[in-house]
Amino acid sequence: MGTHNGQPANPSPGYATQQLQGNVSNEVNRLKGALDGLDTRHKSSAATNTRETTLIEVLSNADPAQMQLIRDTYKRCYGTSLADDITNRTSSYFQHGLLAIVCGPLGQDVQNVRKAISGLTADQAVLNDVLLSRSDADLKAIKAEYLKIFGSPLEHDVTKRLSGDVKMMFEMVLKAEESVVPAGVQVDANIVELYDAGQGRMGTDERSFCAVITRKSDAQLRNISKAYQKKYMTPLDEIVDEEFSLRLKSALHHIVRGANDRPMRDARLLDDAIAGFGTKHELLIERIVRFHWDHAHMAQVAAAYKQAFNKTLDDRIRGSEESRMPIWT
User: Fold this and answer.
1) How far apart are CA 5 and CA 120, in angstroms?
2) Which residue has the higher pLDDT, 113 or 321?
3) What is the pLDDT of residues 282-313, one digit of tens each?
4) Integer Cα distance of 205 and 224 in angstroms
5) Is the per-residue pLDDT at 14 higher than 60?
6) Counting Cβ atoms within 10 Å, is residue 140 exposed (0-12), middle (13-18) or buried (19+)?
7) What is the pairing mode between strands 3-4 and 7-8?
8) Gap between the Cα atoms of 244 and 102, Å rounded
9) What is the DSSP letter of 22?
């Protein structure tokens, strides 16, 4: 996992300590003015829409470093946290989306993991989103921030809520073992390992299969997928479908599909949150916010969505049952 050209990948923006520079006074003043306006009585719907649009514009255009600077500057200038003011002056899914952005990508990941393991059962869709297909550097940052906030190891808290093969796989992932083997090396050996663990035997050796999939970078997995299909005449994605139980299958699909075509995988994840009986609003918002931190990737996801579903992502979201679903695409 998480290498580039044989070297460990650097942390994503927002996942490493950095020196904050810049002047965000204008952005902070606009946010404060919009939030104060939302707090007044007898406000018109037109004025409310304008103020909400201001909040979206300012927050959605900030990169992770700017978002941290905005949070710090707002607190210093007004003596209250931006998140608290948003909580006190907004509501519903609009509030949820704004708070997800204000957290920044690392804070959002940590809070989502905590929420995913706090219910009666673990929310595996959220755990897949946050913890799979991540670089080792990002995983280490998530684990360190989780420990700092909650005082207990993320690995322990997550895996104690899981069981069976899914628990085993997440234990492998959360070791965050850096692979520094160049993408083209060991491919032949890896595809034989995968074949012997799945298609080539009676029953499935889940541990051996997962050991290969979870420890490879996207580039390595792309090479493995191409070589596997060429040698065994079956796409690796189909092997995952045929060999594994539903919960483990969803995790392995997340990794393999993300390696082969991340924008298309993410486009389908957004549609999964919309399709069916009732939109999964919080999951949809969290996914949109997570993707939006990389604006180039978000544009690729929107293009992939149009290709797959013959409808723009904006139109699909606006057509969902919640009229106040914020749009950041």
Assistant:
1) 42
2) 113
3) 999 999 999 999 999 999 999 999 999 999 99
4) 18
5) yes
6) middle
7) antiparallel
8) 38
9) S
In the predicted model, is pLDDT for residue 322 greater than 90? no
DSSP state of 175: T
Main-chain dihedrals φ then ψ at residue 294, nearest 5 degrees? -105, 95
pTM for the full model?
Answer: 0.91
Backbone angles phi, psi at 4, to 5 degrees: -140, 115
Taking a C-beta distance cutoff of 8 angstroms, is the pair 231, 198 a contact? Answer: no
Of the candidates 229, 212, 230, which has an alpha carbon nearest to the alpha carbon of residue 221?
212
Residue 5 has pLDDT above 50, yes or no: no
Residues near 236 by beta carbon (within 8 Å), at least 6 away in sequence: 194, 224, 225, 228, 229, 256
Q: How far apart are CA 120 and CA 230, in angstroms?
A: 44
What is the DSSP secondary structure assignment for residue 325, as one 8-state letter?
-
DSSP characters over 80-149: S-HHHHHHHH--HHHHHHHHHHHHHHHHHHHHHHHHHTSSSS--HHHHHHHHTT--HHHHHHHHHHHHHH
